[in-house]
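Fold this: Acylamino-acid-releasing enzyme
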Amino acid sequence: MEPRQITGVYGEVSGLPVPVSAHVREEQLQEPRIYTVTAEWSQSELVRCSRLRYLQEFRLISESNTHKSIRTVLPPGPCVSVSGELLSGFSPIRGLRAVIRETSGHQLLEIWNCHGLRKCLNLTALNKHGRVYDDAQFGCLSWSACENKLLYVAERSKNASAETQDGGHAWRKDRSLYCEDWGEALTNRSEPAICVVDLEIGAASVLEGVPPDVSPGQALWAPGSQAVFFIGWYHEPFRLGLKFCSNRRSALFKIDLCGHCERLSGENLSVSNPRLSPDGSTLIYLQGAVFGPHNQCLSLQQLDLESGETSTLLDVVSRPQAGEFAGMYEALPSCCWSADSQRVMFSSACRNWKGLFLVDRRSKIVTSLSDNLLDSSSQLYGSWKLLTVQRDLMVVCCSSPNTPPTLRVGFVPRAGEAVSWQTLQEPLMTFDFSWKVLDVTLPSDEENANYPGLDFGAVLVKPSRPLGETRTPLVVFIHGGPHSQFPAEWNSTTAGLAKLGFAVLMVNYRGSTGFGQHSILSLIGQIGSQDVKDVQRAVLTALERDPNLDPDRLAAIGGSHGGFLACHLLGQYPESYRVCAARNPVINAATLLGTSDIVDWRYISAGFHYSYDQIPTAEALAAMLQKSPIAHAAKIKAPVLLMLGGRDRRVSPHQGMELYKALKSRGSPVRLLWFPEDGHSLSRVDTQVDCFLNTALWLHQHL
């Protein structure tokens, strides 16, 4: 197993394109109906160590007597690079394309039509605000109904406000003043502002009137385009990390262009993802609790804009029964409504799968639209992710552990009908390794007394032909969060390891999303014990059900909380595991307390209440230490590979350093990789190549 071979394998599996968004246009012809699907793809490119993005168009011809079935899918058009674009969006009527682009240190707003570039504004030169937000948390680019205005979010200009004070001397006094931000992956986000561009006069302005104690984002026009809906996150008394956290206090607001602002949702809640119905009558949004689990099962609320009344369309699912809808855990796509404004489509975790669902507003009944949940034996695709629904045409990204992402389309079905799915483009390749879902039942002594009767699962991926060996080494791959999920979808790390001859077990321990709110709550106060036992139980289950797996060659890998669990397994089951690779792991929850951007989760995960004015106690610190891998470090025998991001705001890299020194002092084999420019997710392309190469070599060496 040579480095060149490993890098080649990773280049093959990570270089496959992934669709990230889509837009649907319908040509205004009587017959036949022609739809154009514009898909945006992302692709990792190892030569330049960059992530490329491109657009591709697909044209569909529907049956002449109905627009509910597709007759022909024409060959796709050429791929057009859109690398360098920060945000883009199509106008609702004329199909104009707005683009915010970064070039030579300036941010430009471009408007394109079928004849080329129609208008270009230099937003940086206008000097009305700071940098435009292009993240999924705050960012947006929304066209008004008249197509003369655009809405986006940018950093409020500090210089503009300072110049009004004492000729700028106040700015000089405060230029070293600490400025809070929104934490991991949002380090340049501090004071967002809602901005409006008037395309007719070429002017940009900041919408004033947002309450001073909230940070606005996810803005969209209200009907008539004279007001704006937005989500406001409360930032007093101080900001907590937002990424991967659906439990931050926030509210839905409406502000008109004169600056009059009102709150539309309840108090002390967490809300996100406002989506307006096509007829302009109803606004839906996701809602959850504040604090508690960092990610949780959410309810779907609907606000009647005429009466002002809010009701629950989908409630939190505490404990789903087998084969039932398991709750909402993920963001809504920007377009998720049926054309008649009566049905909402969305994707969500469902046990070890990711499914596609429809909820009818009249009956509040949820229907599964994806084959993997309608028929468990139909396992071509284990994951269905909705990209958009426009003109009743759904565009979905489908994948499985051995099938890379592909685009499929289908029309929103009538009641009682099934969707007729069409594949727009077959995957570039499929891989000859197998996969299956394992359901794991617990013995009575591992039950949670407060939440008995829960189960969990895992996804086992195996090379079809082990490389000249009778038994296959097993890599136990553990997700972070902890409240996230490993669905049966394409994962380049898993695929690369399987191509190199390893079996991979991706474990969804209790506390993972997709198993109901009770499963999530069961982990609170039980980290370091319940989750560790769950992973070990999943390993024993896999070994029992598959005699071709080698119990004497087990490895544990994972990142963040997954790294926390991998290191725990080495300390609590030192005779079972031969090697470990951990990315930005939590090692000592007590010493992490003062350095993490989500200090609330450090208390809550250990079973303690959190408030902003919390002062650490000896009891809390002792409990955090006892639940941490560092408490078992002296028992670790297996070699450990640590991969740390120097700019990690979620889990300080000094966590990994703490284990490194503990193992080094005892003469235990340990290797540390340091990525000074990367953060918690270790998401840079060059970092990912280095991590996979070193992980594969480390596993091969010690297994």
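The chain is about 20% helix and 35% strand. The chain has a mean pLDDT of 94.
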